[in-house]
Amino acid sequence: MQQGRYHAENEGVRHRGRTGTWQFMSYPLLMTPSKMHTLQDDFQSSFWTLLYTVLHFIPCSLSRISLANILKIVFDEARWDDDLGCYVGGNEKSTIITHGHYILPYSETERAQIVFDPQAAPLNNLVQSLLHLFWAWDWCYSLMNRKRQLVHPTIKSDADKLLTSEVVIQLFKNAYTSPEWSHNTADSSAKRPNAEVGEQWRKTQRISQASDATSSRLEMVGE
Questions:
Q1: Strand 79-81 to 86-88 pairing
Q2: Burial class (CB in 10 A: 0-12, 13-18, 19+), 2
Q3: Which of 117, 139, 119 is nearest to 61 (CA)?
Q4: Which of the two ends of the chain, N or C, has the fewest CB atoms closer than 10 A to its terminal CB?
Q5: pLDDT in tens, 75-85
């Protein structure tokens, strides 16, 4: 079991300093800048890229204020860590992966659930299906869960689907080819975030660039 966990977490890893668009980085990389960058981080990044994009352009159940707030606290969270000498984040992303905040029904999370317009119904299934895979992986392989000795075979099976890209790609294909799409999703009623969110995005990008520069300097010192 220990050998299997080691293989899953270290297959194809790379450590070149923390780089990438801050809003789309996986929560483990945001929380732990020294973490090895794995294939599973890239899969999770695709999830955040999808969610960020559709929240900007596809009508959903959230009010304009709630939407702007979620975009800010989930994607733009950044705070300076004096001990690490760089910016960190990812706490709210972590609660989404581990507890389903904003994705699962309110009755399960006590958070407003994001439900996309019926004209874009395939997005709801895609987001929830991806979330389940990341939750299973986190349950089986994350650093905080390594002491768990017993994992249900079904959860382990779902987690191991992230060892390759096949299942993730298929989920995107299934959503893309679904007959439930409507051609009228991008109408004028879409709740778009306001200019304040755009400014917050630019601010976080500056933080991300500063963090990348810090990581590069620390890496050079380490060498």
A1: antiparallel
A2: exposed
A3: 117
A4: C
A5: 999 999 999 99
> What stretches in the chain show pLDDT beneath 50?
1-16, 185-190, 213-214, 216-223
Helix then strand then coil, in percent of the chain rounded to 5, is 60, 5, 35
Number of helices followed by number of strands (H, E) in the chain: 10, 2
Residue 10, token pair as written in the block? 């270290």
Q: Where are the domains of the chain?
A: 23-182+192-207
HEC per residue, 81-124: ECCCCEEECCHHHHHHHHHCCCCCCHHHHCCCCCCECHHHCHHH
pTM assigned to the model? 0.77
What 3 state SS string does 56-90 have?
HHCCECCCHHHHHHHHHHHHCCCEEECCCCEEECC
> How far is Cα 178 from Cα 181, in angstroms, rounded to an integer?
6
pLDDT digits (tens, 9 = 90+) for 98-110: 999 999 998 898 8
